Amino acid sequence: MTDPTADVPAVAVVGVHGHGASHVARALQAQAEGRARLTAVADPRAGEADHVPTGVARHPSLDDLLAAGVPDVVVLSTPIHTHAELATAAMEAGAAVLLEKPPTATPAELDALLATSRRTGRPCQVGFQSLGSQALDHVRERVADGRLGEVTGWAATGCWMRPRSYWQRSSWAGRRVLDGRVVADGVLTNPLAHSLATALAVAGRQETADVLAVDPDLYRVNDVEADDTSSLRVRLRESPDLLAAVTLCAGERGEPAVVVEGTAGRATLYYAVDVVVEEVPGRPPLVTRHARTELLDDLLAHLRTGAPLRSPLADTGAFTAVLDAVTRSAPPHRVEERFVERVPLPGGDEHRRLRGVEEAVALALSRRALFRELDLPWTRTP
Question: On the CB side of 7, how many CA atoms lie within 13 Å of its CA?
Fold first, then answer.
């Protein structure tokens, strides 16, 4: 009897705990809909993954997985500093790759990975999930139609919370460098990297050459090496500047957003929920909700039809240039304890809240200024 699943792409997930569990769930959803088969996973703790169904092969590493058989798609949800090596191995073996963001820790790694993709003919989709949203297309169209007038600035913003346990989740958490390798696990380059990548995508400035200069303004409230509260200004080629203001030390979680300012109005894309709010003076706000294509589904469609990817590796040059500027900049300024409130959490955990940080983020966006340019008390050196 002919196997009805023989022509269904085989998918393997590498790194199945933490965020990797969501990739397992998406692969299983695609399997339930007949578009893929989850055939294998790889993780040093694969045996502890109760969310992986019986019958799915488990391996301790990607090398072991590939030795047992090369799937059509390898999903990589592993530490940032392992991305380049593992994605290279998967593509060299003949698999397409869905690579968690940020794609690489350095521009050199990105260039090498792009060369591997071109040479092997294997596509690499990057896990900026927000780029799968049709909300981006909507905002681009409104800008192109002149709905907002002439664009005067792009912005990326986000106020999130991350407890102490988040920074203790692994040896590389909150690190800029680990054992001589760039890790780049700061707010701008990992947890809220979507805000920056989405803003660059909306602006249509995703190539390395589109980034002319970066002015980072980095701070840390937690006992980490990387930044957890930061602003930066990106000077873009043939475009207004992009301003980012983000934090993981807010009092409560707010929806992160990309803001387009124009001479005739403003559009705010709440990219995590696919909602756009357009504000034009003299008119009521226009709120639109949009569909989203999951990036694994998009990659499977690309393999089937050749349709363009929503988040291809080739479109991450500008983001990686900004990441590189952040990781090469001076270490983040340590915020003095007197500006911090320690909030107890269940189980003995704790969240460090930077007092007034939400207002500081809003002020930075309204004035298009870096935190240090606002002369905030917690930005000063004692």
Answer: 3
The type of residue at 81 is: H
* d(C-alpha 120, C-alpha 123), whole Å: 9
DSSP 8-class letter at 296: H
Identify each DSSP E strand in the chain by its residue range: 10-14, 37-42, 57-59, 73-76, 96-100, 124-127, 151-159, 177-178, 181-182, 211-220, 229-236, 242-247, 257-262, 266-270, 275-279, 286-289, 333-334, 340-344, 350-354
Euclidean distance between CA atoms 24 and 26, whole angstroms: 6
Q: What is the pLDDT of residue 5?
A: 55
CA dihedral 228, 250, 104, 216 (to 10 degrees): -50
Q: How confident is the model at residue 381 (pLDDT cuts 50, 70, 90)?
A: confident
The two three-digit tokens of residue 146, written as one number: 């002149």
Q: Which of 245, 268, 258, 279 is nearest to 367 (CA)?
A: 245
| Dist CA 28 CA 26 (whole Å) | 5
Domain 134-291+332-379 has CATH 3.30.360.10: yes
Q: How far apart are CA 113 and CA 90, in angstroms?
A: 11
Q: What are phi and psi of 91, to 5 degrees?
A: -70, -40
Q: Hey, is 218 helix, strand or coil?
A: strand
In single-letter form, the type of residue at position 85 comes to: E
Q: What does the domain layout of the chain look like in residue ranges?
A: 134-291+332-379
Query: How would you class 319 by CB atoms within 10 Å of its CB: exposed for 0-12, middle for 13-18, buried for 19 or more?
Result: buried
Residue 210 CA to residue 235 CA, distance in Å, equals: 9
With bands split at pLDDT 50, 70 and 90, how would you rate the model's confidence at 2? Answer: very low
Mean pLDDT, range 248-252, rounded to an integer: 97
Instruction: Answer yes or no: are the C-beta atoms of 341 and 222 closer than 8 Å.
Output: no
CA dihedral 56→1→35→44, nearest 10 degrees, is 10
DSSP string for 134-148:
HHHHHHHHHHHTTTT
Q: Side chain identity at 195, as an amino acid letter?
A: S
pTM over 0.90: yes
